[in-house]
From TrEMBL:
Subcellular location: Cytoplasm
Entry protein name: Rod shape-determining protein
Keyword Cytoplasm belongs to the record: yes
Origin species: Helicobacter apodemus
Keyword ATP-binding: yes
Alphabetized Gene3D superfamilies for the sequence: 3.30.420.40
Example of a GO MF term: ATP binding
InterPro entries listed in its UniProt record: ATPase_NBD, MreB, MreB_MamK-like
The organism's place on the tree of life at top rank: Bacteria
Family: Belongs to the FtsA/MreB family.
GO biological process: cell morphogenesis; regulation of cell shape
Length: 335
């Protein structure tokens, strides 16, 4: 019996971005996990959410709060997460029926964190909630058959977490993670500019700078609008991106360490499958120029870049919900 019905939605609720699919497997939301709330009334009023809310960061008046409700994939603000999920559910559902909601979650979330997300989604108006761990939703979305006795290595590099998992027969053999992911690199760039350049940049500007850095090649000098931390005044600053390469490279080496940790914890029987099939690379950071080639060189195994790394998880949630009875015993938490 299929779990996925006409009024159900699949959600990749990421720390940085959220992707939502409807029952027709159509992406109806793919924007920042961010919401702007007006707080002058008895209950907060939603001004906007997604990319539009993200643009308001640092430009909002005192009566408007711009909030990212997640931290490293876990709920950091329960009330705001409920409002965020309610806005998504209201925009996605058809008619007056409460939808069933599937959400992909990091494998390392505690039971308390899982319950918090489940409770927030139920309060937001869901009829039923299915929590699916990221390694499974990512691998299914990337087109892997993980029900067979063959090892699959999934490297999911996101904004809040880097997770690597070894899967076979529909179950998890080993997994490792680090919170030193895309967001961590952004904050490291902010701190570098503060303490080495005496200039202030926002996390959003750091994210844009990160995307322009070619870790494995030469980089230009760019002009950025910054704040002088000596006198507080804004000015145009020439920033040499070559000076920032090591910061991003440190984050990439951390990905390598997490992959090695997963492999080291696994039994030797995984070796033939890894040599023949390699690993699948997915997640937002998978699009960093040269990352695939770097991991291949360092790990000495084939790295297969997913065709659509930003959407793998939401696609996988949708596919698992469509075949819920097949996957529910090993993968889903239906509360």
């Amino acid at each position: 019996m299929a779990f996925f019905g006409r009024n159900d939605i699949a959600v990749d609720l990421g720390t940085v971005n959220t992707v939502v699919r409807n029952s027709l497997d159509k992406v109806i939301f793919c924007e920042a996990t961010c919401i702007a709330l007006e707080d002058k009334y008895e209950s907060p009023r939603v001004i906007c959410m997604g990319n539009q809310a993200k643009k308001m960061l640092g430009r909002n008046p005192s009566n408007i709060k711009v909030i990212n409700p997640l931290l490293h994939g876990a709920v950091s603000d329960f009330k705001t997460t409920t409002i965020f999920m309610n806005t998504i559910i209201e925009s996605a559902k058809k008619g007056s029926l409460a939808p069933r909601v599937g959400i992909s979650i990091p494998q390392n979330l505690t039971q308390v964190e899982r319950h918090s997300l489940h409770e927030a989604t139920m309060l937001a108006g869901a009829k039923e909630v299915l929590l699916i761990e990221d390694p499974f939703s990512a691998s299914v979305g990337a087109g892997l058959d993980i029900s067979i006795p063959r090892v699959r290595l999934v490297i999911d590099v996101g904004g809040g977490l880097v997770e690597t998992s070894i899967i076979s027969l529909g179950g998890l053999i080993t997994s490792s993670f680090t919170k030193e992911a895309g967001d961590f690199i952004d904050y490291a760039l902010v701190e570098y500019c503060r303490y080495n350049k005496n200039i202030g940049i926002s996390k959003e500007m750091a994210e844009n700078i990160k995307r322009q850095i070619n870790v494995f090649g030469d980089n230009p000098v760019i002009n950025v609008a910054v704040k002088d931390l000596m006198n507080g005044m804004p000015f145009s600053y020439e920033l040499n991106l070559n000076e920032l390469k090591d910061i991003v490279l440190n984050g990439i080496y951390k990905i390598k360490e997490v992959v090695l940790e997963s492999i080291n914890k696994a039994p030797p029987q995984i070796a033939p499958d890894l040599i023949e099939d390699g690993a699948i690379l997915t997640g937002g950071m998978a699009l960093i120029d040269g990352l695939k080639e770097f991991l291949e060189e360092e790990l000495k195994i084939k790295i297969n870049l997913s065709p659509d790394p930003l959407l793998d998880i939401s696609k996988g949630v949708c596919m698992i919900m469509q075949n819920y009875e097949k996957y529910s015993i090993k993968w889903g938490t239906r509360e």
